[in-house]
Amino acid sequence: MLEKKTKSVLCIGAAHWDVRSECHTEIRQGTSNPVTVSRYPGGVAHNVAMNLNRLGVEAGLLSYWGQDVAGDALEQQFIAQGLDVVALPRSEAFSTATYTAVLQPGGELAFGLADMEIYDHVNPAMFTGLQDRLASYPIWFIDTNMPVSVLEALSKGYGSEQFLAADAVSVAKATKLNSILKYLDILFCNVDEASELVGLTVVSEEDIVKAGSALTLKGAKSVVISAGIKGAYIFQGDSFRHFPAIEVEITDVTGAGDSLIAGTLSGIAEGYKLDVALKRGINAASITVKDQGATSENLRDLSLGAIGS
To answer: Domain range for residue 266?
Structure first.
């Protein structure tokens, strides 16, 4: 049981450049298209760490970058923003990861280009010498952009004394968590990822309850399933509780899940029980979706005291 004193959180996983290319006219194949390009840091671990920082929680970030200008720029920006960067040795063989979203006029995704191969080459040996640094963080958050061997090493070995949370990230990557579910204090996933993890078709609330219960039976101490506009569900042991979403005018849903995670972990870091912490997570998500991008400066205004218990 975490005592009521704010604890620091180490976020381990993806931190890369997101490139947004919005076309001025409908995309035409086979020719050049005029676009407006913007670039900003992204990746699940980065988004959660940055949101934690804005919520007043000391956050560390561990990721893997190339020996290139893009990696240098990321590290310098993260340090300037107040994150504690725990850097793995840089890769000379692979470039820093980039995700490029090509958008139709108005913002609809036409297609995405993911150069993420570098993450597949992280291995447990890279963490040699970092044990003391990692152990200084009482709460760890890991995402499934890391290989299974790293997730297992972190949960079974290095992180045995830590409060451990994980995010499934996507349907394709969710099953990476199967071998470490029993080590997780909190599993975060959405409805589709929960469906993949338990092998059930999830459509109704009854299905969500079955999936959440199955995940606790697989060993996760607590499970949070986000269900978009339907809110979120907590599962602990034989019990569950539903929390409705907050109705707001939505600008961009990109960062909703990462903000929910960060808000919830900030409550845990301050010693609150999961049900109270999740209220903060839902509030954080409702703030973020009103802004463009995966993180929001407006999270700085969010306090647990305004939410109640």
So the answer is: 9-15+42-96+117-306
